[in-house]
Amino acid sequence: MRHRLKDVAERAGVSVKTVSNVVNGYVHVRPDTRARVEEAIAELNYRPNLSARNLRKGRTGVIALAVPELDIPYFAELARHVVTAAAALGWTVLIDQTGGVREQERVVASGITDHLIDGLIFSPLALTADDLTNLDGTPMVLLGERVDHGPADHVVIDNVAAAREITTHLVGLGRRRIAAIGSQRTPEGASARLRLDGYRSALEEAGLGYDETLVAPAPAWHRADGAAAMRALLTSGVRPDAVFCFNDTLALGALRALHEAGLRVPDDVAVAGFDGIEDGRFSVPTLTTIAPDKERIARLAVELLANRIDGDRTAPARELSAPYRLEPRESTKGR
Amino acid sequence: MRHRLKDVAERAGVSVKTVSNVVNGYVHVRPDTRARVEEAIAELNYRPNLSARNLRKGRTGVIALAVPELDIPYFAELARHVVTAAAALGWTVLIDQTGGVREQERVVASGITDHLIDGLIFSPLALTADDLTNLDGTPMVLLGERVDHGPADHVVIDNVAAAREITTHLVGLGRRRIAAIGSQRTPEGASARLRLDGYRSALEEAGLGYDETLVAPAPAWHRADGAAAMRALLTSGVRPDAVFCFNDTLALGALRALHEAGLRVPDDVAVAGFDGIEDGRFSVPTLTTIAPDKERIARLAVELLANRIDGDRTAPARELSAPYRLEPRESTKGR
DNA sequence: AACGTTGACTACAACGTTGTAGAAACCAGG
DNA sequence: CCTGGTTTCTACAACGTTGTAGTCAACGTT
């Protein structure tokens, strides 16, 4: 049985608005009236109807987080932090999976703005700036790569610098034939491009030169893709002594493929990943990685969104940068 | 700029209700009228206000999925399937993380029923039957262990039989000192208790007897807990030749601890898990596991919920069982 | 020609809430 | 005892949508 303000009001012998005032903590209510109302609320187990409240207020208190896939650990971990950060501001988070498919991402970016959410935190893979025009002004914050200087707020990490740093780390171990796994030619591959840039610039800085045969593409960034790419590298005969994988799941797949090929990590081949997921602390061997500060990313994103929702919607888009840390582990121990 | 039915109606020169009829696909609208309205909708980029629609209809089209933690891969994978199954029925899924904390789970079970969701799919860890009484009749489906025959619909797998089957598998490999990791004494440990029962009954069936020193508790079921429990077993000197971990993340932690102790898997110690998560296909060694049919679980849960929402809310609670499969992999290869 | 049926549309009320405006009671200061 | 301000409360309208009831014209049947 569902009750409304009206039922509570009748039971407490006051007007509907007075009950509303009590519910909303309005100060000018006599203590005994407040007590009577609260008693009635408790007796009826009254809960406000959020649809009605939302309609009236024009706010829903719900923000959406759109990620490619929840069972990619990086996004699951990120989601947890976003939910936590949003809860601190009294928001509920609706998590949306786009599959990284452009069409679905466009639906999320434009269609989901059905007054069901106040704002959107969006980690796009396939989206381009064009897709972001039709937004009805629903506040949005993008995570990850810049989409051609789109009109939205942005939280990024410096992918190029991070990729350069971890590649340099491999160089510092004395590795000379450093492969890369995860390149992508599609427009979806914005992260891939930046990380490849960083990899390349580190190699050139070290005087090692860039060898295209050492770069293996990966259609998606799952474990299976990493394993397949690693196998391809091995059978091609290029004999790398290190591999930089553009994310950790790729790296876990690569570890697996190296194990199957009878190669030892890090003795024969050093392996490094990117994302700092929890799995990497427990894999055999543990995985060297770039760990972005996910908590900070989440908090910055939520704060940017809050500013948009409550503040000036026409202010110029801001871009904030979150820190990362290189975490050396067993997979790149010196020999 | 947001537009309403009224704006569209004025532009198309019809009544508000006619626009509503077009939007909702009502058949008795003249083709030319429909065309005019649709043109106006497109020009104004009109989107219905879901809060208003929900208020009017008493439905929101949103269901919630409450799980302990999204970055436990099992729940992330489950979430994906639930989202997919729900989308097939036109529902949006709001994912809620309870942290497995009883208080938070109670909030979800009772409080979230704020008319924002039409129903709830709930995978509780800590909840008891008492907590489920105060529900206002919001439809709910429980996943996993039965909560003392609570009043809600339920999708389960046969934990006892599954645990017995995988333990018997270990016995069949000739293992005689089979340890277990993941026992819990708290009321939260319903799954733990059932899996322990299955383990125990398999041992007795095989005439091996139950040795309490071979059972290691784990406060939570994360990788770190599995690693710690494994280390505890090893230092206690009980020398197991196999371990059944009550979930896969525990098992991955155990693999890690065994590796650090210089023991080989499966040669020295065979390891089995439970949940069938993707990681287990790529770990070194790959992980033998019980893989519940998550897609089926998700579909059954969504269907049960749909029946509650659209059908008889007072019908007696139903309990459906989903199948599972034993998936033998490297971690229990015969020696 | 009168009749019922159907199609195409509209006016109105209602969903449950909260903002606005204002009434009534109370208080302090002159 | 009046004035002006505050406290406490209420009536009403509005948020944007859809269900209900109804109007009116066109049509086919007798």
Automatic annotation (TrEMBL), chains A, B:
Gene3D superfamilies linked to this entry: 3.40.50.2300, lambda repressor-like DNA-binding domains
Keyword Transcription regulation appears in the UniProt entry: yes
Region of interest (Disordered), ranges: 316-335
Alphabetical list of CDD domains matching this protein: HTH_LacI, PBP1_LacI_sugar_binding-like
Entry-linked InterPro entries: HTH_LacI (IPR000843), LacI/GalR-like_sensor (IPR046335), Lambda_DNA-bd_dom_sf (IPR010982), Peripla_BP_I (IPR028082)
Biased composition (Basic and acidic residues): 326-335
Pfam families: LacI, Peripla_BP_3
Keyword Transcription carried by entry: yes
GO MF annotation list: DNA-binding transcription factor activity; transcription cis-regulatory region binding
Keyword line: DNA-binding, Transcription, Transcription regulation
PANTHER family given in the database record: HTH-TYPE TRANSCRIPTIONAL REGULATOR GALS (PTHR30146:SF109), LACI-RELATED TRANSCRIPTIONAL REPRESSOR (PTHR30146)
Annotated protein name in UniProt: LacI family transcriptional regulator
Species: Micromonospora costi
